[in-house]
Structure formats: structure tokens, C-alpha cells
Amino acid sequence: MTARAPHRPDVEILPAESPAPSGATDATDRRWMRLALDQARAAIAVGEVPVGAVVVVAGAVVGSGHNAGITTHDPTAHAEIVALREAAAALGNYRLSGATLYCTLEPCPMCAGAIVQARIARVVYGAPDPRAGAAGSVMDVLAHPALNHRAEVVGGVEREAAASLLVEFFRARRGEASA
Ligand SMILES: [Zn+2]
Predict the structure, then answer these.
(1) Which of 68, 89, 100, 153 could form a disulfide with 122 if both were Cys (CB 3.0 to 4.6 A apart)?
(2) What is the model's pLDDT at position 96?
(3) What is the pLDDT of residue 163?
(4) Residues 12, 48, 80, 160: which is the catalytic one?
(5) Distance between Cα 122 and ligand 1 center (Å)
(6) Gap between the Cα atoms of 40 and 111, Å rounded
(7) Is 80 annotated in the active site?
């Protein structure tokens, strides 16, 4: 990762740690994932499904977001897309080469497609999605041999926290529906 993130006073800068072969340590992945989890919790407050994402370049958050499809009437407003759009706008580049995307849920096919388009180098997700996961669970868009870009994928980081947010959200919604 050589690109420097532009100065953004609202982003959290984490100190560099000794890099693992993949370019990040387990500890740094967990710390960034916790910011994605904060995004997921913010989604609950506005009635959206709690999925969050952050884009990290050179040790700084350059984009973040949570699911916003219901409130913005936008079927593409998944957390990953929201975060990718913000990152691309912040960097002034639709290619986010060298970036790592942290998302609390395994990306769906649409988001995996956007990750390929953005040339994201690494994807770190929390909970696997056995219903629609496109990073290996149901299909593997991010490692598809026919595509011209493949992202390194790490799954299961802060998995329990990410999954329990979703379980609690849908449990509460079912409770409301039956009340
Ligand atoms: Zn998606």
C-alpha cells in the first residue's frame, strides 16, 4: 500500500503495526472491523439491517457506511457500496487499489462485483452469509478465474459480534410483527 490517504480530521488513524505477510495483523483487522461494527449499530438506529463497512487505505479510514436501502429507496445502498462510494470520492479515484474493505457480513454478488470494479486488494468480513455470500459461501466472485481482478479474502473476523447484531435485529423485528 503506497497511496496516502488525504487528511480527514474525522477519521481514526491507527498506529502502524508490524505487518503480517498479508499486510495486516489479526489485531489490526479486528480493530478496523470494530469500526465497521459501529457502522452496523448505527444502521439499527434508523431501522436498517445492521451491516457496516469501512474502507482503509494506508492506515486510515477513507470511507464508511451502513446499509441504507430502506431509508434512501436505493436497492444498491448496501454498506459496502456506500463505503466504496465515499472512499472513491475522498480519493478522487474510482480505483481503490491497495485498499482493504472491512464489512461485517460477507459481501453479496452485487457488492462483490463493485469490489472487483474498484480493484480492492483485500476484503475482510465478519459473518459468512450462507444465503447470498459471494466471497466463497454460495459463490466466489472475488476469486473467479474469469474475472481480471481477484481480492485476498479473510472471513470470520469478529464473526460473533457481526452475526449477533443481525440475529438480534431480525428477532426484534419478528417480535414487533407478532405484537
Ligand atoms: Zn451487498
Answers:
(1) 100
(2) 97
(3) 97
(4) 80
(5) 16
(6) 16
(7) yes
In a 10 Å sphere around its CB, with 0-12 CB exposed, 13-18 middle and 19+ buried, how is residue 165 labelled?
Answer: buried
In the block, cell 447484531 appears at 165
Centre of ligand 1 from the C-alpha of residue 68, in Å: 11
Residues 6+ apart with CB under 8 A from 140: 134
Split the chain (179 residues) into runs of 10 and give each run's mean pLDDT: 42 42 77 98 97 97 98 98 98 97 98 97 97 96 93 97 96 85
What residue has cell string 474525522?
Answer: 10
Across the chain, the runs of DSSP E, i.e. the strands, are 52-57, 60-66, 100-105, 122-127, 152-154
Rounded Cα–Cα distance for residues 137 and 130 (Å):
6
The amino acid that residue 117 corresponds to is: Q
